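User: I'm curious whether this sequence folds into something compact or stays loose and floppy. Could you predict its structure so I can see for myself?
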Amino acid sequence: MKATRKLLAALLAVPTLITLFTGCAKNGNDPVTSDSAKTDVTTSPAETEPEFPAADYGKTKFTVYGRGDGEASYPGLYIDTEDSSDTMGHKTRERNSIVETKYNIDIEFTTDPNPYKNVSKFIDSGDSEFDLILDRRSMLNSLAQSGYLKDFNTLEHVDFTKPWWDANCARDYEVAGKLFFMANDISVSNLAGTRFLYFNKALIEKNQLESPYDLVHQNKWTIDKMLEMVKAVNVDNGDGVWNGQDVYGFLAETGSANGTVIHMLVGCGIKYTEKAEDGTIVCNAYNEKTLAVVEKIYDVFENQTCTLTYQKCAEGADMSGFANKYNYGRSLFASDHFLFVQNGMSISDQFKEMNPGFGIAPNPKYNEDQESYYHKMDKYALIWAIPNFKDLDTERLGIVMEYWAYQSSRTVMPAYYEVVIKFRRATDPNAHEMLDIIKGSIRYDISELFTSTITDVIWNGYASGNLASRWAQSKDAINVSIDAFYNKIKDLG
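Assistant: Here's the prediction. I'll summarize afterward.
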């Protein structure tokens, strides 16, 4: 087994496609790291291992083409490795060795900073160079609409109801009976990329605020309660200038991709799109609840004595030693300048030196009557896709992927979830419970994969303070784009 760390030579002479989006590399989501020393992790026991098909593939290669683990943002973590010196490397090797032995294959990971740019070239050339694609979900949409991806629903020997697959993803990302993107336990990207809240324990104690843990347990963790706490923490350092050297309730992210308000709306139960009874897609992003949530957040977040953005933190600041404004801003959270910040688990390593530490809370509910907490994926988190090579052995693909995901659910995922996250970073038992809530409440929205228009309009309407007007101007165009996308997918062979 080995990890291939190079582009295929055929690509070197071919111009790259124009980038579809430009903001993702600037998001500042760092790769997850683990301690160099190995920590014992017991492989999850299985009383009776499920039955999987027997096959011998004659030592052929099984190749993943994706973003590598060395990327500064959105890395392809724990797919393959040559380093087994730490817990995650050891479990990755263990998992892959089991799969390779059972099916007599050689798992390889061919890496590229932007796989989505080159997939069509490989397919047009007619050569089956790889079996799977792992790239940022929002970057792969044009490949699906252009027929360059295969439908996961056509695979044999896979069962998306099994716990090593994400059944919510299979349900939400299916369009016109076709499923071009899927999540499972082979990749930890879903767990790493789900956005939730971190809170600063020192500021909770100093300001004598209620514990978010207690509020969750009492079913009182709502958007109103969170905003009340945000308003309670604002301290000027005495220089008369509100900047990153003062103390605030929230460190906010802007923009339509991963802006805090975009994720908070999902937490309040807003679905940007839904499926009608006939399977078509309808937009449900704009309603009275949306307006109410946006108004609540705007009143607090646009008060710069309560909330500061990453951009404002960076203005005039010495950011030497920090890769970007996001890392700099999060360092201020870690040094007790912010009560809350929203992000995924992939950045928690930046908070490990905090004293008395950080806590974790789900995104708040709209009110106490809301049935569940909800969480949205980072728009650029990685996801699986299948290249539409004519001679791709889809039977082999289904057999290997099912067993690989199963073995990952017993090795890599427990190690990542129980050790890297729970024990090395979030050492608070209450935080462990919150992570379980978050992991079980991920929502997928198909609109992220085919258009950013919906969240663009919401963000611009929020930022301008006039969402109603912005939506009225854009709703017809949004509905037209949704119908066009649906019909394009429906008409694919």
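Summary: Confidence is low (pLDDT under 50) at residues 1-42. The domain at 195-376+451-490 is CATH 3.40.190.10 (D-Maltodextrin-Binding Protein; domain 2).
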